[in-house]
Amino acid sequence: MKELIYLAYVSAGTPTLDEMAALVAADDGIGGSPSRDTIGRLIGDATVPARQADVLALLTVLTRMAAGDVASIVQHAARLWTDARLVEPIGRLVVDLDPHALEVHHAIAKDGVTGLPAYVERDHDARLRTIVTEVTAGASRLAMLVGTSSTGKTRACWEAVQQLPTGWRLWHPIDPERPQAALAELSRVGPRTVVWLNEAQHYLLNEQHGEAIAAGLRELLADSSRGPVLVLGTIWPGPNYFGKLTTQPAPDDPDLFGQARVLLANREIHLPPAFTRSVIDELRTSTDPRLVEAATHARDGLVTQYLAGAPELIKIYQTATPGPRALLEAAMDARRLGHPLGLPLAFLEAAAEAYLTDTEWDLLPDDWLIHSLALLSRPVKGARGPLHPQKRARGAGQPISIPAGQSYRLADFLDQHGRATRQLERVPALLWKAAVQHSGAEASKALANAALHRGMTQTACLLFARAGSYTKIGAILAQSGRLDEALAMYEKAANADDFAAVRAAIKLLTSKRRVDEALAWYERAVSAGDLHALSSAGRFLSRVGRLDEALTWYERAAASGNGNAFRTAADDLARADRLDEALTWYERAVATDDLALQTAAGHLVKAGRLDEARAWYTRAASADNSSAFLLSALVLSVGWDRFDEALLWYEKAATAGDPRALQTAAERLVEAGRLDEALTWYERAATAGTHDALQTAADKLVEGGRLDEALLWYEKAATAGDPLALHTAAEYLSAAGRLDEALTWYERAVTAGSPRVTAAAHSLANAGRLDEALTWFERAATATGNAYVFLVAAKALAEAGRLDEALTWYERAAAGGFSDAIQSAGDRLAEAGRLDEALTWYERAAISGERRVLVQAASHLEAVARQEEALAWYERATKMPAVEAPGHGKLRFGPSGIPDPAKEGVIALRALGRHNDAEALRLYGWGPSGHIADPWDLTCLLNTAQPGQLDS
Rounded to 5 degrees, what angle do the CA atoms 482, 488, 489 make? Predict the structure, then answer.
């Protein structure tokens, strides 16, 4: 089938991705609608395409371009696609699976009883059962179970799949590494398949593949031809796991998990960590002696944790002798830095030395490692030990790839315990050195990012070099102002066929207006097959004022098959007030670009050459182009003298199928002061399928001072299925001082499913009815589960002068994962003149990794002439952070999109007058020991295998 697609592509003359995407989008008669990127994958990837409709749509377009037999090609392709799907179904039959192979925790043994304990259903199991029932009936569903370690998430998923009918399969992507396995085979998932994403953070939080996996899962769930499917995932809660995936970033921060956030919206099931007292009482009479023991001895209702051996694991760690303790703490720190599950033995051995004192090291026997591993890998009451050898899944075809011999896995409960108890501990320099010397590619990337988030640019570059990620090194160096070294790294990456490096080099050079160097990289991109670079180079030259050179590149782009190049050149000429030359290029574009005629006419309108514009629009309209009819109408209505004639053209556009025509005509009537006539056109637009026409009409009535009439139209819009119309009506009523009426509409909007639950609270707060507003804020928090609501409520209280009450809400926001609420509380206290209290909150924020508060506190102290104290806070900001900021949204990002946690240190050093140190920190970052790194160059990056690289 892939050969058929490629043959059709060649026979069609190798059209550009843009051309193919445009042709597919323009044909409403074909079922599929592949995007530009999807078309690229259909032609270039070796995997079986996920959607048959996309394949058939592309082949229809290509076969037409080659004047071939569309019907026979499409029929043949459909058969090939089906055959490819049926050759080897992905996954294994559910009835053949072992729960432990799917990572269900082993339980303790008792009185000879082993295996899975008897299952005790809880509230979340009822929700899962409902989902399984819907899937069995033919729907595709996703459920993400959220809970702390050993709360029964994976076991609940296992019990859920046991309810599926015979014949269902389960796919658990783990080999060679989880994210790569998921991305490589996701397109093969077909009907009656469970996608098993245990520890989903390894898939969705993966920097390189996470968003592509989330997008693929969204496509899978939406594609009825591949359903029914059931996607089951588990993940820990908190700002570094589920919260990182689902929290909306601040407006100025990059949106790293947009696909995942949409994927998981309203699909999570939270598991409580503890059993209720009534359930525990029932367990005391169970026939399974392990459940009886857990009910009797587990503290605080933590039954599942007891069954997984959690108390014994903690006891082993807390009472461990130096050797085993060092191994466990090295493993804990590596995991909290992002190291994959498998910890290579060579890495553990080298890193463990960092957790031993000189005396402990001297007293350790030579065979300490063997004895320590034997102790830690010993089963705990029948469950896995604290640090156990990692094995491939039973029945897997090939062993899991391990970068450095045997790997070990830290027990999940100790993993979580380490994150909670060691989060403020500075990572020792020897662990970073061990990482550089012994990490595999995936681990190196993860640990490099952790180093980068701590401002350790040299260490980050060394680890990225070990992973072969030279493009990332280039971005780091570029952000540090080391442009020529950055270009050297991009060169190295490009020589290794990393085309992203070519794009990055072009972006860097164009941003610095280094024109001739940029053009050389554009040529390189063209040589690598990126013909779009020709037009990009033209646009860049045009921006820097070298338009005549740009035209040469546009000529080359057009010759390569880019039909849009003529129009782009014409647009640049028109913007440069060379309109007559532009018209010549628009004329050349007509044959390949449907928009050329209208665009040329638009420029003529702006130049006041209306008669010429009408001539161009008339040519476009002669091709039955509904957009041209619409634009002709716009031109006729420019001066209002021929407005009624324009309305006839709007009618033509609507008849020709342009959905914008009726509403555009209505808007122009409103501008002409003919609102009552406009309402008729809005009504027609709504009937024709323009969904927002009714609400727009209502908005226009409000603007005209006719609010009561507008309410009738908002009612019609809501009846047509737009709950936001109710919300908008409520806002207008509130603005008009009719707040009690507004609350009725707000209530209706919430009931109808409007996501803007906090709007009523804002209106009440603005009206001074703050206590009522707080009730609505509470409702919003309950309805959305979003702790950001607490932050908004705190702000409203603070602005109303009720600061002490606001502090309670700031605390609630912080407890819900919004750590910047602590800094916000400090800011409010400082603004109120309560600086000493503010410093207490700033201290809390600084401890949790919020670096910005150090400079913020210092600036507040300076403002009240407490100079000595200010200098102390600035001094703290000059030190390397011990921990990462809690989430990407709390970090400063530089222009290259690279985290810049050293920014506060640079600011503080300059405030202290240490300008040379500030420049050194900007260029070289921090070293692993916590001091500003000594000057370093690319030599160390290109010789990463040499020991001692981190000693400088």
Answer: 90
Burial 27-48 (b: 16+ CB within 10 A, else e): eeebebebeeebbebbbeeeeb
pLDDT for the residue numbered 212: 93
Cα-Cα-Cα-Cα dihedral sign, residues 624, 627, 629, 631: negative
Q: What tokens were used for 141?
A: 């569903």
Is the backbone of residue 686 left (phi > 0), alpha (psi -120 to 50) or beta?
alpha
Residues 6+ apart with CB under 8 A from 657: 626
User: Whole-angstrom Cα distance, residue 192 to residue 203?
Assistant: 22
Residue 413: which residues within 8 A CB-CB, separation 6 or more? 149, 150, 305, 308, 309, 310, 313, 314
Beta sheet of 343-344, edge-to-edge order: 343-344, 407-410, 387-389
Burial class (CB in 10 A: 0-12, 13-18, 19+), 514: middle
The pLDDT score that the predictor gives to residue 875 is 84
Q: How many CB atoms are located within 10 Å of the residue 273 CB?
A: 17
CA distance 296 to 289: 11
Angstrom distance (rounded) from CA 719 to CA 233: 37
The total number of residues written for the chain in this structure: 952
Token reading at 592: 């390949």
Beta carbons of 459 and 451 less than 8 angstroms apart: yes
Residue 656 vs residues 645, 650, 652, 661, 692: alpha-carbon distances, Å: 17, 10, 6, 10, 21
In Å, what is the CA distance from 245 to each residue of 240, 448, 453? 8, 20, 18
Neighbours of 397 (CB within 10 A): 7
Q: What is the pLDDT of residue 601?
A: 83
Token pair 């290029």 is at which residue? 585
Q: Are 692 and 666 in contact (CB under 8 A)?
A: no
As averages over each run of 10 residues, the pLDDT of the chain (952 residues) reads: 72 77 74 74 67 81 78 77 65 90 85 87 93 94 92 94 94 86 88 95 91 94 91 91 84 82 91 91 91 86 84 89 96 94 94 95 94 90 81 54 70 86 87 93 92 89 92 91 92 90 94 94 91 92 94 93 88 92 91 80 83 79 56 52 71 72 83 87 85 88 91 89 85 90 87 74 87 88 77 91 93 82 92 94 83 86 88 81 50 54 81 88 86 81 48 36
Candidates 711, 701, 709; CA nearest to 734 is 711
Three-class SS state of 458: helix
Q: Which of 804, 817, 810 is nearest to 848 (CA)?
A: 817
CA distances to 183, 382, 444, 863 from 392, rounded to whole Å, are: 20, 20, 21, 61
| pLDDT value of position 667 | 84
User: What is the distance between the alpha carbons of residues 431 and 416, in angstroms, rounded to a whole number?
Assistant: 19
574's tokens = 């028109």
Residue 28 tokens read as 């409403």
- Give the C-alpha separation, 604 to 828, whole Å: 55
Measured CA to CA in angstroms, residue 451 lies from 433, 702, 883, 911, 932 at distances of 12, 55, 10, 25, 14
- For every residue of 251-311, DSSP letters joined together read TTS--TTHHHHHHHTT-EEEPPSS--HHHHHHHTT-SSHHHHHHHHH-GGG-HHHHHTTHH
Residue 951: its pLDDT value, please?
Answer: 38
Contact yes or no for 151/271 (Cβ under 8 A): yes
- The encoded tokens of residue 443 equal 């681990």
Buried b (16+ CB within 10 A) or exposed e, 461-497: bbbbbbbbbbbbbbbbbbbbebbebbbbbbbbbbeee
H or E segment and range at residue 93: strand 92-93
Q: Which tokens hold the place of 640? A: 């209002």
What is the four-CA torsion angle of 9, 10, 15, 18, rounded to 10 degrees?
30
